[in-house]
Each structure stands twice: as C-alpha cells, then as structure tokens.
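User: tokens in, sequence out, please.
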C-alpha cells in the first residue's frame, strides 16, 4: 500500500452510527465491527473512493499527529478493514 493507493468501502457492508461511533456489519461474512473515533473518521472519509494521501491529509487537520504516524496508522487500520472484507484497496497502475 502506498500514499497513492485508493481506498473504498465494500458495498456489501452496512454501517450505522451509535453514540458517535460507527458499527459495521459485513453482509459477506455476517460479522460486526465497532470503530472508535478515528476509525469512524476514516470510514467517513472513504465514503467515496479516496487515496491514502487524501485521507491522511484530512486526518492531520483534525488530529494532533505527524504525517508519518498518521499514514502508518491509516495503512494498518485499512489493512484490517480489507482483511475483514469491509473495504478494498486499488494500487495505482505503474506508468510505462
């Protein structure tokens, strides 16, 4: 995954907000997942497909975090979403 990787939600995921946090349910696996405040912010940001760099830029505005730490955290979190089939990633095609 790189800063130019495009993040998007899996359309087979249902999301609802409960007490300011997002709860996800995968229609594919039947599992549910609770997101904390930062996870909920990332989920909101990928409502439309968006690059890792764009997500990081928005989170830096909202949280007191370095770009490097934010990028690492986003990539780790998104990796977990992808593993749980809640989101997908699309790496940019290398130009020749």
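Assistant: Sequence out:
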């Amino acid at each position: 995954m790189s800063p130019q990787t495009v993040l998007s939600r899996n359309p087979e995921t249902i999301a609802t907000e409960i007490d300011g946090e997002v709860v996800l349910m995968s229609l594919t696996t039947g599992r549910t997942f609770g997101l904390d405040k930062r996870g909920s912010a990332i989920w909101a940001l990928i409502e439309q497909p968006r690059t890792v760099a764009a997500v990081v830029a928005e989170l830096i505005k909202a949280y007191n975090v370095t770009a490097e730490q934010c990028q690492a955290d986003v990539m780790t979190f998104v990796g977990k979403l992808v593993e749980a089939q809640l989101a997908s990633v699309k790496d940019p095609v290398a130009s020749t």
